[in-house]
Structure prediction request, 427 residues.
Amino acid sequence: MIRAYKFLMRPTVGQSIALGEMLRDHCSLYNGALQERRDAYRHVSRTSVRYGQQSAQLKEIRAFDAECQGRWSFSSQQATVRRLDKAFQAFFRRIKAGETPGYPRFRGVNWFDTVDFPEDGDGCRWDSTPNDPVTRVRFQGVGHVKVNQHRPVVGKVKTVSAKREGKRWYVIVTADQAAPEPLPRTGSVAGIDMGLANFLADSSGGFVPNPRHGRKAAASLEAAQQALARFPRVLRDKRTGNHRRAVQKVADLHRKVRRQRLDHPHKTALALVREHDVIAHEDLKICNMVKAPAPKSDPETSGGFLVNGAAAKAGLNRSISDAGWGVFLTILHAKAESAGRDVIAVDPRDTSRTCPECGHVAKENRPTQEKFHCVSCGHSAHADTVGALNVLRAGLARRTAPPGRREAPSSMRGRSHVSIVQEPDTR
Prediction:
């Protein structure tokens, strides 16, 4: 099992400058490799340049530009070139699948924020001594940087990455661990129904409120963005101190919301994994749920369009994205695998319209968003609780089905058994 750890680094002023130069030079290498591929395809009879060819040129590049490219780790530069190669592989894969291709783009200095080191000890060294209270990580060309290690790294360190977020620097360490000891069995099972009024409802009648971090920060973020937009174009080009502080304030607000959205799913998923042996959830197609409605042409007006509810759908999409269901499910599956729990995804169709008492399915069973009232037997309950009960029953039925009939839902197919869990930095 591969687990990722993210720690805050405490570089000195000189080390911060060196880390910034490392990002800048790797960004230049990425853009140069992309330019070579573009030129070779456009001007040399549609020739494709492969990763092996560009990796073989690194030795000459390092010798030619010893002051910039020559002082950094060779393996980290290979990882940057491989990163571009993966972008092209994804581009061609999307073309074959008939999806929007998304050709790899050049990276600006602020868009390139991570340098990867594929192996501990090759250009970097994770130095975590049990008797030393201070943990350090060494990067070639930078030196030993202090790390605020808030939890121990279990297992053998495999890769190390340096990442910049605003003015802060983080180190991301991946470690290869043996399968952890499963948690003691509790004998409890639960089904969960995710929503917007409540983040989730469980089959026992409990609710987890929706924190709505994005909506709460919307006013502050709007004010900060308006203050940033007031700067004239001339001042923006000069990058004055006030402009940089306005940019930093917007970035800090976005970062706070992102960390809150990551912290809440971690705590919610951990509570579920500790309390229940089996957890069933809806197999939601979130990408389809947040799609904008297709425009409807007005046959009576040339070039006109009919009302299609795009504005209302945009608000709903914003609320779904703010809830972060996809992140929560990813974290839940990873934590359950570490704890030896079973997480089952079931088909969400009619889960909130089926009566858990008599099994009657009808649209009229749910007269309002929160109320469920069976028109056949008269059973009444909260609609989300009814949905969670039906999800649990479907999950248990699928769990006890013969192996040949346990086909995974479409969104779970191809899920790797390797768990990569990045713990949030809650400071």
Summary: The chain has a mean pLDDT of 88. Residues 241-275 form the longest helix (35 residues).
